[in-house]
Amino acid sequence: MDTIAETISQAELVELIRRDALREASLTGRKNGWHLIVTMDSGRRVLAGPGGSAQLFPTLETAAARMHGLGITAFRVDTAGASFAPDPAYEAWFRQQVQDSLDDTSPTIAHSEVEDQFAAKRAALKRKMAGG
Length: 132
Prior knowledge:
The protein is an alpha/beta fold. The protein has four helices and five strands; from the N terminus they run E-H-E-E-E-H-E-H-H. It has two domains: 72 residues, Signal recognition particle alu RNA binding heterodimer, srp9/1, CATH 3.30.720; 42 residues. The longest helix has 19 residues.
């Protein structure tokens, strides 16, 4: 995972694209998000955010949407430095679903019984579709 010190403003990037001077674009994973890296004849630079420092996009989708909005439709993705930790809200929801299922005291249904019930439903649907 390389670090690129020089930034490029969105206006400068738009001008590079307009002049067809952009050689390559990539999204590079970082611990907390994604950087948009551009390569041109003069070297590599990272897209600057509003404050002038490197723009860090929170998700790959957000970064890809920005690139698409700039007219960059083909790019490389480097996941070497990315962190793919699950979303904490989803993780909590999923764990609660599992716990609720484990705590459920309602009677269980045998697998063969469920298969028989759905076989009967499929047969009824086939009869209905056949007009009888």
